[in-house]
What does this fold into?
Amino acid sequence: MSYYEKIVEGELKSPSVFREKYKLYPEYTPERLPHRERQLRELAQRFRGLLASPGKEMLRVVLAGSYGTGKTVTAKVFGSAIVSLAKKKGINLKYVHVNCFKSRTLPQVIHAISSGLGIPLPQRGLSVQELLNGLLEDIERKNIYALIALDEFDYFMVSNSMTNPLYTLVRLYDDYSLEKKRINYLFIVRDQGALELGGEASSSYFVRDVITFPPYRSTEIYDILRDRAQEALYPGVISEEGLSYISILEGYDKGGSGSARTALEILVRAGESADVEKRGSITIDDIRKAQVIVKPETALLQDHLESLETHELLIFLSIIKALKRTEEGFVRMGEVEKIYRQICENYREKARKHTQLYTYIMKMKNMGIISARNSGKGYRGKSTLLGINGGPLDEFEKHTEELLARRGK
Ligand SMILES: Nc1ncnc2c1ncn2[C@@H]1O[C@H](COP(=O)(O)OP(=O)(O)OP(=O)(O)O)[C@@H](O)[C@H]1O
Ligand SMILES: [Mg+2]
It folds into this structure.
């Protein structure tokens, strides 16, 4: 075996925290979707007619919510459930998922729909009207019913706002005297306003049937991560503390974006960082590193450090040192204060009083450099818990000490 083969083999053989890594990727449909039951039920209610009286009317529903809130995955899960229920009733229902980011024009969308339905259409030479005719004739002949999800529909609207293709799609049956309305739509958007670009006539078609996907709260992200970690990681690889650290970073109620996508990405990167160091478990510092990769804007926080006053820097350094002593994401303010007094002695600075420290801390919290929250239940007594935003501790520590040194400290 060559020298290089040995290196490569060594890496391939080294243990990994991932049992089935792909189960953390966005394309994978998880076994469970915690906190999306309401949306799933609402979808079922609004599409009742698909099974009860297929072809009677064209059903249209909008799914709206910011990124990473589970719109795509919920649509797919609903699609496959309703298709298999239809089958049991002898209804030939097909679910087609079209990504409008990839198919940006009306002809492209029509082609994507037809290939999803297994209906070949000529690639060239036909007008939109002719394409639609061909499609409608074929599904009539094959006795197909279709539920078509137009995902990332915002993109479609932006690139077509002048020609109003939405109108063509929703008014599909107005130009035909077909007995059965076999096409139904699920429009998926981040911003509901996108639909208004289609003009009054088409947007008024929607207002009734919007299902909202609110950004996830931190407890919800926690549940999602716990489930996905169970599917994809070896048992015990990540602690509860680790999962809750990510969910606090991302939880909407804690100032995060509320995106399950970002939370899962952080988990993947943190696992990779543990793998690189062949550790077999994910630490809080792995998560901090991952956060900077996934959300580069958090790295910019380092730049803000320069603008801090000396005692703010000293407090920041104390938080880092306190965090380094534990394996946890947050430390109690009392701990930080103890270390701060020690550090002040080392730097020959007069330590500030508690109330002053608190003011500094709130200022740094508002700048987004640190996070501060109430301990709530679970900790002895009530206390303020402090953590830092972004970056592995060692780097931050070094950077802060350099800044202090530059100021002659
Ligand atoms: N409730 C949930 N349970 C488990 N996994 C979830 C849940 N919600 C979202 N996810 C996962 O989070 C990731 C992002 O979800 P999804 O792609 O559905 O978001 P989206 O709302 O379509 O976002 P975007 O607008 O960016 O396309 C996927 O990996 C998905 O499986
Ligand atoms: Mg999506």
